[in-house]
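Q: Joint fold for the lines below.
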Amino acid sequence: MSWRRRKFLAALGLGGAGALVSAGAASLLPSRAGANPGAAPKRLIVLHTMHGAVYQNWRMRPGGEPDDVDFNTDVAGLDVAQFSSSLAPLHRHREDLLVLDGLSLVSAYCDVDAADNHRQGQLTCLTGSNNDRSAGQPASRFASLDQRVAREISPVDRLASLELGMATSEGLVSYHAPLSPLPVERDPGRVWDRIFGLSQGTGSGSELYGAQGGVLAALDADYRALAGRLSAEDKLKLEQHAQMIRELELRIAGMRQLACAPYPHPGPQLEEMDYETHHALMLDLLVQGMACGATCVATMVHGTLPGELVGVPGRDVHAEFAHDSRSNPASIDVMTSYYRVHAEHMAQVMDALAAVPEGEGTMLDNTLVLMLGELGNGEHGYETWPVVIGGGAAVTGWNMGRYMRMAPSTHAPGADWQSSGAHEPSWPNDLAGVPHQKLLTTVAAAFGVKGDDGELVTSSGETRCTAADGVEIDLRGTLSQLS
Amino acid sequence: MTAERASRATAGAHARANRSPLRWCLPLWLATAMPTGCQGTSDEPTLCPAGSGQDAALRRLTTRQYFNALRDLFVNEDGETLEVLPDPQAVEIEDPEALAERVWLPSELKVRGYAGIGTGQVVSPFLIERYNDNAIKIGREVSERAEEFVTCGFEEDPANCGAEYLLGLARLAWRRPLTDAEREDLSATFVADLGTHGASVALQLGLHRVLQSPHFLYVPEFGRPTGALDECPESQRQALSDHELATRLSLFLWNSIPDTELLARADAGELHTRAQVVEAASEMLRDPRYLRGLWGFHDEWLEVESFAGSTREPIGAGYFLDEYHPPLFLQQIRLMVERAGAGEGGTLRQLLTTSKFPMHGALMELYGVEVDGLVPPGDPDSEDFELDEVWIDVDLPSHERAGVFTSAGIMQSLASTFSPSPVRRGVFVLDRLVCNEPPPPPASVDTAIPENQSDDATPITNRQKFAAHTDQSACRACHEGIDGFGFAFENYNSAGGFWTEEPWAVGIDWEERPDLITWLSIDASGTLSGPFVPDDLQGTSYANAPELLRQMAEQRSVHRCYTEHLYQYALGRALPYLPSDRGDYDDQTIDALADDFFAADGMLETLVLDLVGSEAFRTKVGDEP
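A: Joint structure:
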């Protein structure tokens, strides 16, 4: 919790027991960090994909540029044939795109206690963290980007963030706090419950929610009383729980007042839905929910796509294709299509946002969509980490419609590291891509996330990593090219 | 992998080995302490291990414990519970309409496969929302059916009956007598709510409070003021109270909260000596609720959650997996666990080696049997498709199947669409039966398995394909140890069916022309050697998986590993990843339990009773001075 938020809760009298916010006060509540009332909302949607991309079919070199130079080129004027095969579905949003070529999860190579590649990538991609096993399994020791942004921008009486999963078993990437990954929900009916339940479901007319203030205040006191009798770590757990009960009290009041367009409950149909139907429904729920202010931050976690979406029905894409997607021509084709499907997913997210007018533009202007994943490629490499940003120009002020290539310039993490990943054979073996922490810091700063000193953040997760030859790699700072 | 890449990978492996030797192929088992004490049967004195060990992080009820507890808290005269409460043990695919009305929780994070490990039990806004919504749904149904569930005459005298009911419920849910302040608080709040909102809402608000209380959802432990156990006066650990032990016992053995009888023992102060705890536990093992506990542990130990949703179509087998298979696989394992674990005389050996398999009509084809009394299922696409509930035990050939690790459910979960995954199978056995899970391959190693799919390729078996890949010297270091276990299971195809020949179908349309498939003889024999293989299994040779499992079931190391898993489950605490971070206290306790368990021929009941009688189970780390 940021200091601003603590201060805000204290101002509401929620530092102590018993404060009940009446439903009528909800509309007066500012954002968590006290946003300017009347300003357009800021939003963040993170799309997480698995197995990276096939770099040679993902990258674009519209001017025939060599790999070892930086360039920053306009893509708004390109026709679809000039887009790479994997990115082609995003051509329709080219004016709102920012493609980042040259980032790397390089710190994962220096982590001496790394987890298996998928889990390591998942725990670090939004956090910048090394692996921390102290809770008994691989985990991040920092909060994730989406949660840091949520703390900054989400109104305190709404859902701070939504974690949606197209699969629940493959990967947790959002960390509420150190060692605290957030669960994802894949059932559209349950997602509906979270977004619309209090305004359109059983909660809307129920006097119970209105009468609950005393219960929640009493529970808050119960948790803090018990916490006071426990050891430091256990105490923290119960204090977190108490804090969340206080937030729930505010959220119930705020969420009951949401004036969302009527949205029918999707019903219990998950088991019958194919991937694309499921995705379309989740996306619609999310955008409609965001449109009426249910939340400002969401992370959508994709699992491995089913074979039928990439022309190999019934096959195990992960085991049979991803793992040799740099050497086997058949797998290269499949995994090129694989990323293209996700590019289409991202384009659909942008379609949906662009369809909702907001202020002088659309929701897309105020919503930064960030697509990234756990790996650079299907063979578990952390280099050539593919990142695409869409929309959000009103939030970030960035020039969109660009493709930005950052040539390898980071000290290589290990002598042998090149053999592992998607580092292109023609590239120098002594240089790695730009640390992904810089992207996280850049996005966090664009949303106004501040450090303990009250200034905009300058790092995300780890601040340095040590290469095999002892050289320290600096992970701090932002991508200066963006602004 | 090219020679150049291989040599780079080798260099990488060594570089990592130098940095972090324990993670790189040093058999973890070798690093564990040898037994330092002996523990007799449950009548004999408790071992008092040296040191104070660690405590579990504050535990919360797991999803299963939460639902089981709620189902135990709300029971009407006919023994029925509320309609909104799901049965967390349910195997069958429920009617989705009914499911949507039920209460639910977000998915859980598991540590080493277990949801009950305190450090993994993260609090999230999502979870807090669900606890509240669930309490609201439960409260609504209880108030609507007050005649059935609030049986003190709520309609006639809500003021007295409502308060009395809530106090009784809190005592059960919080698993201890209430303090005077708590009684007063709950009663006064109810009376005040009664005046403001009326009887029904007041009752519901009271339920919201009781069911979201930290005393219900969490398992706080403060210990007895008297300090150490009587029989371990020198110990730095503090004895738990009778009520805290009642909760530990019921969470472990029933996967739920204590019932009134167990609480009554605690109230009477008769639930803290070793004899008292063991006696109570012995009775709990005879209760039908013990199945929840047995399944609770074994479902997680065997990772049955990974059964669902897989596409499995072994080439040329003539069958593939359908949606109805996963619940049947789970049911089959549950029945095997029940037969080995519930009741006297069941042993780990039985669980690992039995060739008696519960059989269902819809599994006969996969297992290659026909059984009188069982009928194969009809067309799953037809309107009236329904699976019957008949299970019949059959004796399978002993060279085909031995125990749960050769069940189709586990075998198919460790496979890809067409082929078995010997590496995943080997790692699974190492993790679950040997407790030496290999570290992940270094980031610098190429883990792709070449497909060898050119039309003129020489036919090779799945095993040869994997062996060629992992013969690379960098991979060999670990895979020698992994493959010794993994290749033993090559006779089980990707759907879990048994066969002795496997298909080679590269370059042909095998669906249209199955006659063109080349059938290759399977070699599932091997010898255990290399890293991760414990001393008592080094050099073990076998012709197939059943032979391997029968030999493993005779070894102490396997009994010790099962003990280690059960110990973590029972205490809600995962042992540190690195053996060097583990304290002697746990090693001594586990070794002593394992010795006893092994000496008792692997009797599961012996282990369970020894465990609940141990110092570790009956104490906590003492408060800081």
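Q: Anything notable?
A: The longest strand of chain A covers residues 97-104. The radius of gyration of chain A is 22 Å.
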